[in-house]
Design a protein that fits this description.
Mean pLDDT: 84
Low-confidence stretches: 125-140
Strand order of the largest sheet: 2-1-3-4-5
CATH topology of the largest domain: Rossmann fold
Helix content: 40-55%
Number of domains: 4
Radius of gyration: 28 Å
CATH class of the largest domain: Alpha Beta
Bound molecules: adenosine-5'-triphosphate, magnesium ion
Structural class: alpha/beta
Number of strands: 16
Strand content: 5-15%
CATH architecture of the largest domain: 3-Layer(aba) Sandwich
Distance between the termini: 81 Å
Length: about 450
């Protein structure tokens, strides 16, 4: 492997010398430029594995980072920020930096961050840092993951952190948020990438079948077991086992699975001998597991085994800034196959997509775009090509789904509370609310509760 190259951008000569010394000791080929303006020119001539940059005073970090990322989209950028300026650091991450170190930093901090960033770059994970366009990059393990919202950046960072380890990971997120895609990204970015990735669906099979499916069986161990068979766990040996819908496993299977994970051994159904098993477990659940543990439906010991690291994947409605990028990705995916190709979303289509609350998350968006591409007679998708529930979505649906209460909700609750506290006396309630009785009647009809309050 060739020597990794690092470019330092810093105007402070003393700081550059120190950094150069530390990083050269670790075997990197280190170069430096003093002025951010010169960084672009340097990068045109030479490619690097990491850029370590200071942010000179009055720099517009967003423009600067975009400029750097434009030059070399796959190179991680680490910011060196002034002590305490967390805002700059966060802005930097949002704009595409891989990570930041706050000044003054220790040699150990720089070494560790450089190591992580270079490893990342070497694995070809260009999109660890959010990308600014929607072109799929199938050569990268993160390539199929789209999104540059802060919460997705946290997800990318978590993937990068856990990929190199063998720790069990629990992925929690609503249906369609990308749990399987993320599980595959973790597998593909780690040392087990060339080994099997086997999916077990905890919700798909009956208990007895799932047991033999998971653990395998010996010939004759039950009616119908005409030959012995390797279970899915054994098939995943040396690789990764993706335990999907783990909350659906029965208590009995939870216990058996726990034993396998703890003892790193497996015994087929009907067999007395155990064999060693080396699998990395990535589990996924639509429901947060902790409440299930408290309710006693999910084993606490298994939960702790699996939840060494938990990655919470936010629902699409909480990261709507990713929606245009995702929509473009799917448009590219499906639209380019059509003759003539469908290449655009009209602005009002995008506005409608943003108003919807996406209970089915990214998968629902993908299906909506796929359907629209099929229906659209033109190269541009219009709102009419969207399913009615999405086209006609009202903004308050989204607000409610995000946990916000609309003014109308607030008014309705208040009115009903006043009525209920005053024996449903319309005149008295109207006086208390400071409105006319007629207005109150109109509102009750509007809410569709008039009959319940004795009004036609
Ligand atoms: N961040 C993302 N970028 C690009 N595509 C995504 C992203 N998240 C999800 N998808 C796509 O959305 C679809 C659903 O994703 P996936 O199957 O990983 O979700 P899931 O969380 O496992 O859903 P479920 O809980 O219903 O099984 C897939 O086609 C996937 O490629
Ligand atoms: Mg899934």
């Amino acid at each position: 492997m060739t020597q990794a190259r690092i470019l330092i951008v810093d105007s402070n000569v003393g700081a550059v010398t120190d950094l150069q010394e530390i990083l050269s000791e670790d075997g990197y080929d280190v170069s430096s430029v003093r002025d951010p303006q010169d960084a672009g020119g340097y990068l045109e001539r030479k490619s690097v594995d990491l850029i370590l940059t200071d942010l000179p005073p009055h720099t517009d970090e967003l423009t600067y980072l975009r400029h750097l990322r434009g030059r070399c989209p796959a190179t991680p950028i680490v910011l060196m920020t002034a002590h305490g300026s967390l805002r700059t650091a966060v802005e930097g991450l949002k704009a595409g930096a891989f990570d930041y170190v706050s000044k003054p930093f220790t040699a150990a901090e720089v070494r560790s961050i450089a190591k992580r960033a270079v490893e990342q770059a070497r694995m070809g994970n260009g999109e660890v840092v959010p990308a600014f366009d929607a072109r799929p990059d199938d050569t990268s393990p993160f390539g199929s993951l789209v999104g540059s919202s802060p919460s997705m950046v946290q997800v990318y960072k978590a993937i990068a952190r856990v990929a190199q380890t063998d720790s069990s990971v629990l992925l929690q997120g609503e249906s369609g948020t990308g749990k399987e895609l993320i599980a595959r990204a973790i597998h593909a970015s780690g040392p087990r990438c060339c080994k099997p990735f086997v999916t077990v669906d905890g919700g798909a099979l009956a208990d007895s079948l799932l047991e033999s499916e998971l653990f395998g069986h010996e010939r004759g161990s039950f009616t119908g077991a005409i030959s012995s068979r390797k279970g899915l766990l054994e098939q995943a040996h040396t690789g990764t086992c993706f335990l999907d819908e783990v909350a659906d496993l029965s208590p009995a299977l939870q216990g058996k699975l726990l034993r396998v994970i703890q003892e790193k051994e497996i015994r087929r159904v009907g067999s007395t001998a155990s064999t060693a098993l080396d699998v990395r477990i990535i589990a996924a659940s639509k429901l947060p597991l902790e409440p299930l543990v408290r309710a006693g439906t999910f084993r606490e010991d298994l939960y702790y085994r699996m939840n060494v690291v938990t990655i919470d994947i936010p629902p699409l409605r909480e990261r709507l800034e990713d929606l245009p990028l995702l929509a473009k990705r799917f448009l590219h995916l499906y639209g380019s196959m059509k003759v003539p190709p469908v290449t655009e979303l009209s602005p009002d289509t995008l506005a409608a997509l943003r108003r919807y609350w996406w209970p089915g998350n990214v998968r629902e968006l993908e299906h909506a775009i796929e359907r629209a591409v099929t229906l659209s007679p033109y190269s541009v998708i219009c709102p009419e090509d969207l399913p009615p529930s999405i086209k006609d979505a009202m903004p308050e649906g989204l607000a409610r789904a995000q946990g916000w209460v609309t003014l109308e909700d607030l008014e309705r609750t208040h009115i009903l509370r006043v009525l209920d506290s005053h024996a449903r006396d319309l005149s008295r309630s109207a006086t208390i609310l400071g409105i006319h009785r007629k207005t109150l009647l109109r509102k009750l009809r509007h809410y569709g509760v008039a009959a319940g309050y004795g009004v036609a």
